[in-house]
Amino acid sequence: MSAPNTEAYLAPLDASKSSITIGIVGGGIGGVVTAIALGRIGYTIHLFEQAPKFAEIGAGIALGPNSLQALERLSSDLSTPILANYESVATIEEHNGLWFRFTKWDTQEEITEVRTTGKNSSVHRARFLESLLPLLPKTVTTHFASRVNKVENLPGNKVLIHTTPPHQPHPDYPSETTESGRTFEVDVCIGCDGVKSAVRGSIGLSLTYGYDVTTRVDAVVRYTGTYAYRGLLPLDKAIERTGERHILTFPIEQGTILNLVAFVSDRTAPEDQRVWNSGPWVVPVTKDQMKADFAGWDKDVLDYLDLIEKPERWALHELVPLDKWTVGRVTLLGDSAHASLPHNGAGAGQATEDAYILASLLRLPGCTAENIDKFLLAYEKFRLPRAAKQQVWALRTGEVYEMESPLGNDWDKIGENLRERYRWIWEHDLEADLKEAVEWLKAEGVVH
Ligand SMILES: Cc1cc2nc3c(=O)[nH]c(=O)nc-3n(C[C@H](O)[C@H](O)[C@H](O)COP(=O)(O)OP(=O)(O)OC[C@H]3O[C@@H](n4cnc5c(N)ncnc54)[C@H](O)[C@@H]3O)c2cc1C
């Protein structure tokens, strides 16, 4: 499917919102979907991205029915083809909803198939982001090479965003920034700046994460005990393996490329005492390094690892669920609010749900420069519990895959568990959340 002509979708829908300025920090999937939605509504948007251009790191992601539903609602409510553009680059599984097959590594015996009701999909992250960029409305001004170091709630309903260049080297972006320090005054700030969120740190929801990410663990970000090798290879066969290690594969790029993630876990330390002290979170690795972790595995598996082009090792960190995301006129969205292990295949999907609920609330006619902070609270109130459950659930899902859960290696129970395990994520009624949020705003006397 080719992407539709997008010129028609770039104009604001509601000119009365243009006097309200919103700063969005972070141009990943969460930030860009949010910028498209809020810009299309008519808000004046400043989007700050620390990298010199939009770019996704990492390989493929899967989006389940709940994420597709969020993209569909955003598209139809705002008359902008987010879902169509996504589908033009995604690999869609719409016939039998196969999410994955869980098989034993040695005998290839199938434990279970896990199926969604409704269609699901997978995509190369970079292609997804590229498909979204033509939809950024004219109301959105993007500031690249702009690292936000601090945001401040000011007296008088304003927020100050500081985009000072870093004075210490940053391991992920060593050559960043071309822009000298500047400040921007906005009405609202949304931190979409990922797991290491500077916005979250500066509103006191965690200690500000230092640049020395190699060893520091702040109050809420912690190493999960799992690292993962990620890479792409030109194949279309899925494999799984167990025992503190497992491998997940799924096709992207219309079935021509296989996305492979090989997980290695060490759960000897208690959950709150796991520390990553082996350097930067994301590093390139050699095939030999990767294969050493899977020494003794059967030949098929090692052959797959051999085919990966440019493998990387990711130290997987998570946020301990926060009890709030909003302080004054600053809120969080996506991984900055609820980063988790990827075992439910749901992190980016949760960001799309965030964007849908937040945009739908800020679109209400009763939302003004004076009361917009109440709408941020409604968003938090009706998104946080579900996103927090997904964070905890993801950690436990990894234990099931690697036979470290109370189910042990009882294959029947594991199969039964996996078949039902993700239903609450996929079959959620987002519309009901939105209605409840609107009812709450009515009860608070904010909308009528
Ligand atoms: C191995 C792995 C597999 C995964 N698989 C899946 C999957 O199958 N399905 C799924 O739904 N999810 C998956 N996820 C999770 C998913 O990748 C994340 O949840 C999602 O990308 C989060 O998007 P985000 O926009 O919130 O944050 P990010 O993608 O982290 O984007 C943050 C952006 O903010 C920018 N930024 C950061 N700090 C600043 C700053 N101070 N100033 C300015 N800019 C800043 C960054 O450069 C970046 O562009 C997976 C994750 C991993 C690690």
TrEMBL record:
Gene3D superfamilies in alphabetical order: FAD/NAD(P)-binding domain
A Pfam family that the UniProt record links to this protein: FAD_binding_3
Signal peptide location: none
Transmembrane spans: 20-43
Domain of life according to the entry: Eukaryota
Keywords: FAD, Flavoprotein, Membrane, Oxidoreductase, Transmembrane, Transmembrane helix
FAD-binding domain boundaries: 21-389
GO biological process, one term: secondary metabolite biosynthetic process
InterPro entries cross-referenced by the UniProt entry: FAD-bd, FAD/NAD-bd_sf, FAD_monoxygenase
GO molecular function: FAD binding; oxidoreductase activity
Keyword Oxidoreductase: yes
The protein's name: FAD/NAD P-binding domain-containing protein
